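Complex record, three chains
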Amino acid sequence: MKTGTYIELVGEFYEGAVFVYGTTLLLIYALLAVLSLSAVRRFQKLDSHVDYSLLLNSKLTPGISVIAPAFNESLTIIENVHSLLNLNYPKYEVIIVNDGSTDDSLEKMVREFDLVEVDFAYNERLKTKPIKRIFKSSNPAYNKLTIVDKVNGKAKADASNAGINASSFDYFICTDVDSILDRDTIMKLVKPVMDDSKKRIIATGATLRMANSCVVEQGFMQRVVVPNQLLPRFQEIEYIRSFVMGKMGWSVINCVPNVSGGLGMFDKEIAINAGGYDPQSFGEDMELVIRMMTYCINYQINYAIRYIPITLCWTEGPATIKVYGRQRARWARGLAQLMWQHRKLVFNPNYGRLGMIVMPYNFVFELLAPIVEALGIIYYIVIIFLDAINWDYAILLLVFVYTYAIMISTLSILWDQITYQTYKTSREIITLCLTAFFEMVVYHPLIVFYSIKGYYNFLGNRKHTWGNMQRQGFGQGGARARTVTATS
Amino acid sequence: MATNGTQILLIDDDELILKVINRILQKEGYVVTTASNGKDALEYLERDKFDLLITDLMMPYSNGFEVISRFKQHPNAAGVPIIVISSVGTENAVKEGLNIGADDYLRKPIMPDELLIRVRRLLKK
Amino acid sequence: MLLDSLFGPFFRKYFYYYDSYPIVIQIAILLTGVAITTTFIAYSSILTRRANGYLKDVRSKKINQFLDNLITDHIIFNEDVMNGISPQEAILDITPFTKPVFKQKWVKQALIDRLIYFSQSFSGDRNVLFRRLFMELELEKLSFKKLKSISNSTKIVGLVELTSMGIAVADVIILPLTNSKNRKLRSEARIAYIKLSKNDPFKFFDDATEPLLLWDQLELYKIITTTEGLTIPNFARWITYSPNKSIVSFCLKLVIHYNQHEAIPAIVKLLSTKDHYVRADAINCLGKLKADSVEEHLVSIYNNQPLRCQLEILKALGRFGTGRQINFLRSEFLRSNDFDIKKNAARSLINHGMQTKEIVQQLIDTASPDNAIILKHCMNPLIKY
């Protein structure tokens, strides 16, 4: 048995490390489940008494800018802009940033909304690609609308920044023009900001979901349906888990790592002072939030990020493996890039929770997880070949992890049902619950594979892409959900 | 009754308001068509002629401003009076509503008697 | 080791080798059991929630339909009121509301909710009738009972019901609640107090130690500005004396709403406060009151102010529109490098209307492209902000 010692030694060390890693992760999930349950219930209890219509009538209602970049969205742009113009809120503006579309999006909008070019005093606080023209509608029915036509910047970040520059209010909501928003979105996102006087609320977010099989009419959500296709349905579970359990849980201890690029409201002053979105980033939404938090800590601003456990935004999830793979590789690359850029924050006690919880968690359990898992699979294969595996133990552990993962997913679905009974039929819920059974064997390996691919791209391209503007373009990467993936 | 055959289009996304005002107007002898959003309302506008339009402002699909502006552009609708009923009661909103072509602006909560008086007055003109 | 006692025997029975496993594996097996159990509890919870929700929906849809028709028939179409008899004296037939079906508690609650909904949608004479119906059916007793509950959320429900229906509650009951630790209860109690208290509705302003959140201000503002028959005090009282900044800035908003010129001296004193947020609010208030007597003073302090206050001063000068500060605005517009200062100076110049038409045109003709575009931006009626 002498030949086996070396492998055994490595094996023992590896098993020990993975044991600690896995146990910690499982404990974190258990903790998040408890925290998010308390947050969801609290929200549910208070929200039923809130009279949101107060906002409609008051002089004290704060103004909000809604910013939506658009790149070649000609097919749906008219409907989507109409729906953005019809949100339930008395004081807001809609800024559509046409990011150098090469189709007829702009012409269509000009015709539909009677747009005229105006002399607009544009304040370039955040540097972007040049602005070509700015339009307003000559029809008073659309006086909320501003269209910014700019040179393509090959990044959603650049377009969002231009929208921020053109905006007039203290808070802005960032979304994608093809996302479907709930009509009460602004009211619901504003509430947490008005509900705190001790902390400055620098961002609020809400749950995102898949729009794939939903019935949408003229840009409005008619009926929410669980996606029929398998891949989007996996993503639906993933999103519910990530938002309702993950972000809600983290928000209780003010450790929200990210406000999704699909929908989020931000404090403009802080966002601008922190430097706005980074067009070089592959994960510009999370990157901005991390920078805003860093800024607040540097300037001793007592900040908080809030999440609400109701779905306000639906986005089309990738339905083919190819598009999905591109999206996930991009996210993974964004995460790696962000961790590298902000590596000084990790385990830095000067940055409080950000340095000691948010960044370490994302480094150890988000960034490293796919690598640990991949190594784990390789290790198993090796010991199977060497016939050194204890099948009993291996299977028992696997069964445990499998049932635990299903439990977490099912609980997320339950928590979600507490606040928001979105689906009409119980059949849909049952399908969703059953899908959770296949997640670990079918869907999860995809995440691992494409994440590692993303890391590989990051390492491979780091030298030459850092600095120039070669981007994959936005569109797929818009809605972003950091995932809570049950792994061991 | 003098009100016989007078066609009113009533648009509001609040089902209670829609139901109750509909009944109030019907009792007075008006013929009422109801729509719960701007999109449906615009479809009715294409099909029928109305003598008066009562509309809410914030509704799904097409908001009241859009309905009013489309309505104003419609060749059949020249001179047809418009009443806005809205829970948005800020000065700006009222100004905007009147600017865009509404003849009257009523804030919610609504006084049924007041509404009736205004309806009668506008129809007399 | 509660887990072990729960699941241990089961595993010992079916896996005879259970005890020979290392502790880690034993724990894993136990937790597997827990996970499976939890998952099944979750399933049944999801399904029962849905079933209950569905039944409730169907039930409440049906009852609401019924109640809506009943209320419309008997209250909205009350013959006496329609014939011009005052709602206090009109004959109100409550027998349709005393049918056996109303014996059930949930139907009674549905009626309360529906009456509140009606009274929020319709006002005037009908509102008096809604209230009379509420009282004559003795529904307020149910609300008062809720108010006595131990649970805060039940108390809130009771309070909201009474406030919505305009039923007076004794000060002794409400006042302690205005200092409750429960934020929602506190704010509802304040609302109820303002709306229903006969003596001094603004009393809690004096000793409010907690900051008034923006949302609370929204609620209070609505109640204060829409409650009929409320005696409005001179808010200068709190602007001068309150140590609570949020109360001060809320009072400034109320001063604007009621156009209380008598509060101007108190507001002017605020201009020397250290907190520049409050100071900016004060300047804003003076501008909206068109208190142009302080114009000179504002201009004289302008240079020592932070940006936020400078912007408010520029706005105020535009609101005054006296024409005495045109040169100041013009020179600020040309001098400053700050975009917001330029924009606000330009806007205030343009707000002077005819008085400055020539000056503005002259500025456009001679200004740099950047300056000209700011002026054109502010002059364009299509651009609101």
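Note: Chain A has 14 helices and twelve strands.
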